[in-house]
Amino acid sequence: MNIVVNPGHVFYKEGDPRNTPGKCSPDKTLREALWNREVANKVVALLKEEGFTVVLAAAESERVSITYPVKVCNNLCNKVGSSKVLFVSIHVNAAGNGQWMNAKGWSVWTTRGVTKSDKLATCMYTVAKKVFKDRNVRADYVDGDPDYESDFYVIKNTKCPAVLVENFFMDNKDDCAYLKTEICKQKCAKVIVEGIKNYINNV
């Protein structure tokens, strides 16, 4: 199996106008793009240890941050077949516009409707409930499974099963403090990797 790992967004440098507004905690101590890249690197390393072929689809410009990973993924699908590729996009959630908010917790997203992505998302959710047993793991059971649904570009336009993981809220003080810990980063990576392995073992 080939896994495409996408760390969401791009961070240039402090004060650079190209940085996407709001992609940080209200106190600016957590930058989503930097966090996403660090966890993506952990995911890649763990997957390689398991023997998977892994591609890190990290855009170098925010202008192509959603189109580039889709292009990388679909090129791979065209080469090896969509049934042999999985895609995961790594993010940190936010509920407000630069203010501390109350929303908290981990969640996983797919596109609308029933697809193989739902099973991949459910596998990750099941692992997350165990790994984050003392924290909030969010679910939306409107359609019978725990993933949230939205037509995010990076998961709507890929040709293979694809999920977007929202790893807690950077604008919740408790979540933000947790996100900055090494144990959180390790666990977030573990959830993704173990979820992928469980999906592959049960396809």
Written account of the structure:
- This protein has helices at 32-49, 67-80, 116-131, 153-156, 173-179, 182-202; strands spanning 2-7, 53-56, 85-93, 107-110, 148-149, 162-169.
- The protein is an alpha/beta fold.
- The protein has one domain (2-202): Zn-dependent exopeptidases (Aminopeptidase).
Question: What is the third-level CATH name, the topology?
Answer: Aminopeptidase
Provide mean pLDDT, rounded.
96
Percent strand:
15-25%
Major pleated sheet: 6 strands, mixed
CATH superfamily membership:
Zn-dependent exopeptidases
CATH architecture: 3-Layer(aba) Sandwich
Output the structural class. Answer: alpha/beta
N-to-C span:
12 Å
Shape: globular
Spatial ordering of strands, largest sheet: 2-1-3-6-4-5
Give the domain tally: 1
- Percent of residues in helices comes to 25-40%
Number of helices: 6
Q: Just give the CATH class.
A: Alpha Beta
The sequence of SSEs as H and E is EHEHEEHEHEHH
**Low-confidence parts, pLDDT < 50 over ≥5 residues?**
none
Q: What would you report as the Rg, rounded to the nearest angstrom?
A: 16 Å
Number of strands: 6
